[in-house]
Design goal:
Length: about 325
């Protein structure tokens, strides 16, 4: 995906062309190519953004690889990306929340592009002291965390176990649950245990014997489990004594086999506004943490997908435009 970067064209002040990453067939990261496309224009209730940063999520490369065609079929060619931060460049009819020049972040489909369009209600104002890279990588983790904790009914006094607590979703879920007054136990590799303690969780090592270690830490039991890692559902059901308060977000087949809820494939259930509001609340209080580990230019989206698929490393992967 190398090549000379063409300049975008505009009519007046509204761009008509946009550089974008797209893929025309399911497959390996090499399917991603940098092309110039017609810039999407905002319809009623929508805004157009000049994207500054777009988060890279596991869902992005799973969709590209064709793993989720049964859940989320795509119309090809497809521009990936689910979240971004940028500056409003145009507003559609009826938009009242935003004006041209506003700095915003949130749920943005087809975000691997210079310009993207989204609903005005799916965005929040970017605080001046929040970096573009952090803001561009916030929505998916914030929304998933808010939604799953709500579905689990996590409340003050509960003990919540989060598998994969040092990952993007896990770390935000830890912070949301701690803010709600819950006790949080998080599984992670030993290298991430100090990080989890900083977030307010009690760390437990992954691997064989993990549930014995959890029981030793919480002999009174665990009320709810969020599996953001995969591979722990059967033991989690046994630990909680049922399937009602166990949720998976990684492996739908494993969830079906364990009889637990798999959350997140239906955007109609997403809780974008609440998730972003909670992030802003914690950020304003000075307590919110979201590490960014890798920042790459848009043209290197294939490398970003390779890094994401490896599943190692703490913090978000972000594309800048």
């Amino acid at each position: 995906m190398s090549g000379k970067r063409p300049g975008h064209h505009t009519t007046g002040r509204v761009p008509t062309m946009s550089l974008a990453i797209s893929f025309a067939a399911y497959g390996e990261p090499e399917q991603l190519s940098l092309t110039e496309l017609t810039a999407p224009q905002p319809g009623p209730g929508q805004v157009q953004l000049k994207v500054r940063a777009a988060g890279v999520n596991p869902l992005d490369w799973k969709l590209r690889a064709g793993y989720l065609t049964g859940f989320m079929p795509l119309e090809l060619p497809h521009v990936p990306g689910l979240e971004a931060a940028g500056t409003v460049t145009a507003v559609g009819p009826g938009v009242t929340r935003w004006s041209v020049g506003d700095e915003v972040f949130g749920s943005v489909p087809a975000a691997y592009a210079e310009y993207a369009v989204t609903g005005e209600e799916l965005l929040a104002a970017k605080p001046a002291d929040l970096s573009w890279e952090q803001a561009g990588a916030l929505h998916m983790a914030a929304e998933t965390s808010f939604r799953t904790l709500a579905e689990l009914g996590v409340a003050k006094g509960d003990t919540l176990l989060i598998h994969g607590a040092a990952g993007s979703v896990g770390a935000v879920a830890v912070q949301f649950a701690v803010a709600a007054g819950a006790r949080v136990i998080g599984t992670a590799s030993p290298a991430n245990h100090d990080y989890l303690r900083e977030l307010g969780a009690e760390p437990v090592a992954y691997g064989e014997g993990v549930f014995e270690r959890v029981r030793a830490l919480a002999p009174e039991g665990v009320h709810a489990v969020l599996d953001a890692a995969g591979g722990y559902l059967a033991g989690s059901v046994e630990l909680t004594g049922g399937t009602e308060r166990v949720i998976a977000i990684v492996d739908a087949q494993e969830a079906a086999g364990a009889g637990v809820r798999f959350s997140g494939t239906d955007p109609a259930t997403w809780r974008t506004a609440e998730g972003l509001a909670k992030v802003l609340e914690l950020h304003a209080a000075g307590t919110f943490v979201l590490p960014v580990r890798t920042v790459l230019p848009l043209a290197e989206a294939a490398e970003a997908h390779r890094l994401s698929a490896q599943g190692h490393g703490r913090g978000r992967i972000v594309l800048t435009v």
